[in-house]
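Bug #2210: token dump truncated for Isoflavone reductase family protein?
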Amino acid sequence: MEPQSAGPLQAAQVPNTYQRVISTPRGQYLILVSWPLGWNPDGTTDDPNIGDIPVLYMVDGNAYFFTATDVVRRLQFMFGKKAIVIAVGYPVTDSVYAPQRRGPDLTPPSKRERVEPPTGKDGKPQAHVSFGGADEFHGVLEDIIMPVVEQEILPSIPLKTMPRALFGHSFGGLFTLFSLFTRPGLFDTYIAASPSIWWNGCSIVEEQERAFLEGGNGSGEGEPAPSKPRLFMMYGSYEQDVVRKPYESEEEFARRKKHATEFRMKYNAVEMAGRLDTSDKLEELWLQEYEGEDHGSAAVCALQSGILRLLGESAS
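Reproduced locally. Full output below:
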């Protein structure tokens, strides 16, 4: 029996999701939004507890939007907890990352005369990428993207008054810390997964973190946050204590081990957490190490446990 033709392939559709490409002075961004199952397809709801539902903003949306949406919806099924996910990505279709865009967007500016470009997979400095544009990107996020979501995509939902969180991994985790140090009142919870604190010789420690701890908001304006935020910071044990992969050559493993030693993922996170924990700047600081996870796998662990804690389903 000949199989019947199903016709042209159709794109899979996920209920209660929306996406839009918007233009900004920093280029086009892909905005992806999901809201709880059971709400109306147009994003409206008569949920009596809407004021307590957190809104999770994310960078690197191409890589993490659907993962976050799936995590939230499983928790809705199991515990009745809900969340809105708003992810910022790029209009690319051949990769979940856009290195030429995320590098500049997610790395902090520095007072140093020259920003040190990180090395690529080939071990060579990425001198062709212009880093250090996090302040401008944060302005786009705050002044353009968030208002578009609030006023045009989900206009009936009081997003401005609902609890807000920001998630980022790697450079995204670095951006999350930058946001905490420079705009500590914009989000209630900051989730920094495997943050690239090492970037540019740890300039975020010397500049934005120092200004934050000295009483300002990290931007040099000296404005305190209206309320104390929470910080969740996570990393994988194999990010610093690397283990050779079965397919790696000695040379490849040696190069990766060298990078891990230089990046100091665990030590940088622990040291920063220690400084922040002894200050009075945070409502809560939660530091978590994932045993046996590397830089890539720790991202999913952090997203899962970060959402669990955000929704009040994790006491550890």
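Output looks complete on our side. The two ends are 57 Å apart (CA to CA). Marking as cannot-reproduce; reopen if the truncation happens again.
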